[in-house]
Design goal:
heterodimer; A: mainly alpha; two-stranded antiparallel ribbon; 15 helices; 68% helix; B: mainly alpha; Four Helix Bundle (Hemerythrin (Met), subunit A); 6 helices
């Protein structure tokens, strides 16, 4: 047994990492639905879920159980193979794209092996291209689901969505070219490090300033790619019942649901990495006191949760919430007490914070913006985003050329 | 023969088998969507083979362009036209006899080539640096810049032609 472990260490580590990441991503997905319902509810002056568990925190669990136990009918005349394949494809591709995201530059040294945060090491030469390759395949899940259901609303939803995703994929890819030109690499790690050329500039060294046009195009196109409000025409309730997944129930529906939320997370990761410095801190490198920021955020938050728990109405809440609060505050205390750990978690902390901000923006948009009309959607993609992103590529390459020819450096 | 089964070799055989199975299924499937799906399997398997050869960029582009863009358009058109199951007629004898002859001839030709070259043909040299994005761009934009530009001009003309043809007639 030990010999097997030592000879196939890489395989074992990767398998463990995959299982761990799967667990984390699915849990985050579940709580993302809770977060979304809460935030949208508060935007609309409602309470949101609050019956199942303290603050509705067990709602995702209840939802998951409900998905598992619901009846799962297959429509008559459906193309069985493709009908079952579509949700699998959607979920598998969404989860694969997460696997390519690096969450930190430093490996953990464990059992004589460097273990990177993320499934693959951050140094993949075609990192961003591989991500785009997976996104490009993502259309099939939706298109095939719509087609195989043998029903008119799903077919219309599937057609709409393939047309939308094809149109916006152009702008999505073109808008990143500016960033790639500035970094001179497809490698996600090098793209991030290119934003740290001047460590004293902190937030002002990030790509989002010179590439503000590219960021705008990228974010809008990415929201459209993930079929979220205001671009959720493939599942426009008022017109298409539920669009491409009308005929899906039970866990097959849940798979589409999880796929959608996972791609939200991937897009947030990409936005942070490409335009917002990835795991870089927004402060100048010499401000070492900002390294205590994770603790400064976690400890008061944990204490607040403990206090809130003592005042909670139900007995269950009065036990659970202080427990959770103690764990959070304890984590913060660990970071203060162990300087090595604190240094290590800086990179993942900033990346995760940025991802969280983008997820919030996603939800915020859902609570704020109305849906586009179909012709507006097409005109916006082809007549505004695509030309803008091409202009961005031309301007960026021109500036880089000028700098290379006459620049000071 | 008698070569040790290393991990890349196993992956190669899996991918090669996938590509062949996909190609055969592409022809045998009765429904256009199933044929298109088989073709996607072939494309992805080929991309995997490129990756195995160390040609990362080509592999990614293979999936983005062929697996993504082109095949999505295929599937899209099939869905839009709502094409049903193909009607199969019994093979006409006129087409059958020459077809069989051609199959035998082609199989013989391929077999002969493989048999003859088994000794003389070696594995392709490890591409390594050659296949990197930088090398490819150097080749396209320095060594072969004129053919490349000419091709892109040709594509532009074709795009314009398609736009003109697809335009609604002005009444």
């Amino acid at each position: 047994m030990t010999s097997f472990l030592s000879t196939n260490a890489e395989l074992v580590i990767t398998a463990v990492k995959i299982a761990l990441l799967l667990f984390i991503v699915l849990t985050v997905n579940a709580y993302l639905t809770w977060f979304e319902r809460k935030v949208v509810a508060h935007i609309q002056s409602r309470w949101g879920p609050h019956r199942v568990g303290p603050h509705g925190l067990l709602q995702p669990l209840a939802d998951g159980l409900k998905f598992l136990f619901k009846e799962d009918p297959t429509p008559a005349g459906a193309d069985k193979f493709v009908y079952y394949l579509a949700p699998l494809l959607a979920l598998a591709l969404a989860l694969t794209s997460i696997a390519l995201i690096p969450f930190g530059p430093q490996p953990i040294r464990l059992f004589n092996h460097d273990i990177y945060l993320g499934i693959v090491s951050p140094d993949v030469n075609i990192g961003i291209l591989a991500l785009f390759a997976i996104t490009a395949m993502g259309v099939y899940g939706v298109a095939l689901a719509g087609w195989s259901s043998n029903s008119k609303y799903p077919l219309l939803g599937g057609l709409r969505s393939s047309a939308q995703m094809i149109s916006y994929e152009l702008a999505l890819t073109m808008s990143v070219v500016g960033v790639l030109l500035m970094a001179g690499s497809f490698n996600l790690k090098q793209i991030i490090e290119a934003q740290a050329h001047h460590p004293e500039r902190g937030i002002f060294g990030w790509n989002v300033w010179p590439q503000i046009l590219g960021f705008f195009c990228f974010f809008v196109a990415a929201v459209a790619e993930t079929n979220r409000v205001p671009f959720d025409l493939p599942e426009a309730e008022s017109e298409l019942v539920a669009g491409f997944h009308t005929e899906y129930a039970s866990f097959k529906f849940a798979m589409f649901f999880i796929a959608e939320y996972t791609s939200m997370i991937t897009v947030s990761c990409l936005c942070s990495i490409l335009f917002f410095g990835g795991w870089l801190s927004p402060f100048p490198a010499s401000w070492t006191f900002t390294h205590y920021l994770p603790s400064v955020i976690l400890i008061p938050f944990g204490l607040w949760v403990i206090l809130d728990g003592f005042r909670y109405e139900t007995m269950f809440g009065r036990i659970i919430l202080p427990g959770v609060g103690t764990a959070i505050a304890g984590l913060g205390a660990v970071f203060v007490l162990l300087p090595n750990v604190n240094e290590f978690i800086q990179a993942p902390f900033w990346l995760l914070s940025k991802i969280f901000v983008f997820l919030f923006v996603y939800v915020w948009m859902r609570g704020t913006l109305p849906r586009f009309r179909y012709d507006q959607l097409m005109a916006f993609g082809w007549k505004l985003l695509l030309p803008l992103s091409i202009v961005n590529v031309i301007v960026t390459s021109f500036v880089i050329l000028v700098r290379m020819t006459w620049g000071a450096k | 023969m008698g070569r040790e089964m290393t991990a890349p070799l196993v992956v190669f055989f899996v991918l090669a088998a996938l590509a062949v199975i996909g190609a055969v299924s592409l022809i045998l499937q009765k429904h256009p969507i199933h044929s298109a799906l088989s073709l996607i399997v072939v494309m992805v398997a080929l991309a995997g083979l490129y990756l195995l050869l160390g040609a990362e960029f080509v592999a990614a582009v293979q999936i983005i362009v062929y697996g993504g863009a082109i095949m999505v358009l295929f599937v899209f058109v099939i869905m839009l036209l709502n094409a049903g199951v193909e009607e199969h007629t019994n093979l006409s004898k006129m087409a059958g006899a020459p077809g069989l002859l051609l199959v035998v001839a082609l199989a013989g030709f391929v077999a002969a080539t493989i048999a003859k070259s088994a000794e003389s043909v070696h594995a392709a040299p490890q591409t390594g640096e050659l296949a990197s994005t930088l090398e490819i761009s150097n080749m396209i934009f320095k060594d072969f810049v004129y053919p490349f530009e000419l091709t892109s001009f040709l594509i532009l003309v074709a795009v314009l032609g398609a736009t003109v043809l697809a335009q609604r007639e002005k009444s």
